[in-house]
Amino acid sequence: MRSEPAIVKAKGPPAFLQKPAAAGVRAWLWLALAATCVWPAELRAQSALQREYEIKAAYLYNFINYIDWPADSLPPAGGTITIGIVGENPFGPAIDPLKGKQIKGRTLAVKQITTPKDLEACQIVFISVSEKARLPEIFGQLKDSKTLTVSEMDGFAAQGGIINFISERNKVRFEINPDAARRTGLTISSELLKLAKLVKS
Amino acid sequence: MCRHRVVANRLPVVVFPSTPDSRCDFLPGVPVAKAIVQIKQNSFGRIRCARRGWAGRWAGLLILTVLALPASALDMCQMCAAPFGATETADLTGLSLQELYDLDIVQPNVLGGHTHPAGQAMFGYEFMHMRMSGLYQGSQTISPAQAFAEGFKTVHTSMDMDMHMFDLMYAPTERLTLMTMLPYKTMSMKHLTSAGLNFNQSAEGIGDLEVMGMITIFGDILKGGPRLLLNVGLSFPTGSINVKDHKDGNPGQPSVLLEYFMQMGSGTFDPMPGLTFLDDSGRLSWGAQTLETVRLGRNGHGYRLGNEYRLSAWTSYGVTDWFAPSLRLDGRWWGDITGKDTGLNTNPTPEGRADLRDGRRLDLLFGLNLYAPKGIFKGTRLMLEGGLPVYQHLHGPQLGTAWILSAGCTYAF
Q1: With 50 as the cut, is the pLDDT of residue B67 above it?
Q2: CB contacts < 8 A (A, B)
Q3: Which fold is adopted by the domain B121-412?
Q4: pTM exceeds 0.90, yes or no
Q5: Contacts of B282 (CB under 8 A, 6+ apart)
Q6: Are B225 and A4 inside 8 Å of each other by CB?
Q7: Which CATH class is domain A47-198?
């Protein structure tokens, strides 16, 4: 215990904080608070969604290295490998980095499928969720082609699709239907199969 | 009505309608043309406002800062290319199949986030120092002499509190994140008696354990954009309500029960309901939260602390993928104590009075956030935040808050 002379005035906060706040000041403070809460609605983040499709686009690129097409179904060296998108394009700009990339001695191209005839030029077809109801029809159109079918809808692989993206614990994973791949004449490497969840028709 | 825009160095520049005689709503009573000149002539937000006092200047600066930061961030968002932007596309084709397989869709980043994607866990530690000083009665301070004149024999002149907070978070699903927090507190309080004697009393120990579930009721963490979370928490009475120290701080004296806010816990099981709104856009994130602490029943000493209501809002801007400043407004209201601790009957201080406990306070806090996006410290965030009350109104005499400083570290895995 230590003795001090008489009464000592407590050291307070800065002088301006000790003055009574004017009534209007409070209103301004609450306005500022509200402004931080209600920021314009048009500001909407898409980063996580975009990230998801950037990963899926990179997977599409990687799949080409781990899948062998029958010799007659790939264009000759220097030609173009085409990824066709059927239905609404969920990738947005995330698919753009693939355009013009070189892989297996060929140039990669991405195109939106508008007619069944467009499918013939594709080595990979991504079928959008928007086409779920038309799936049997699309499979019918691809029946005799050596095309890798990819999607991201429930039950796609079980219905005869070859690769289906799934989200698992914040990661993009995929299912593979090896039977469907075999029927199409595609050979999938064991490395790719090892990472996939295998599904039967 | 004012509207604001910002320049690259993020200084707020207020742009007013062209009518020369109109009055600015933002600086009431100041002609618009004069207000423009005054604002432009001053640098770094020092707004000279001839017809307002300090309170008016402070409020003006606060509003400009709060409004300018998000807008500034948006402008810079459009100008800069960096991994944050929603409009920028990352080329991940250089990654191997295994790297893609292991890549998180939602990655921890410098902006942080209240919840986690399924399977992610986070460990955090935060150190906070709070300095309390000034005897408040309403929103004004009074001198110890004035408090003695009200019949008190002893008053508190200042208090320093250090708190070490350990927290653990885990998300079993995309929509649910669980969190548990345990504080360890040390407090030291200075007293002054009407006889002019100064003495210290101190206390330390673990506080109340808080367990909380944050449930996403609107929005999706994987899709980004606005989200609304329901907070369902419970505070467990793990902190002691029987903390004592020597009378008059003199080791030769017997131990006496310390005042209510020198106790480590509430002594009751307290539900903690709340709502949190989160949104982000590229480099910018912002949010608001209301969180209540509802005291139920009475503790073992026959009283219960007052309910506490908190409302806070914040914004954070990622200048780079490893650095983000933030701004936060934190308002809180708390009530009087119901009942009283009979062990404090002989305590002649205002802080020992159950009926002089309620108050409200608004803090403005500025923060710096650092994040390691790669390397051996990948997933680690460092936070530094400091601030002071811009408004406090206490039913006193009651010690006010002078300033708050905190530093923390989190690791997500």
Answers
A1: no
A2: 239
A3: Porin (2.40.160)
A4: no
A5: A45, A47, B77, B84, B85, B86, B87
A6: no
A7: alpha beta
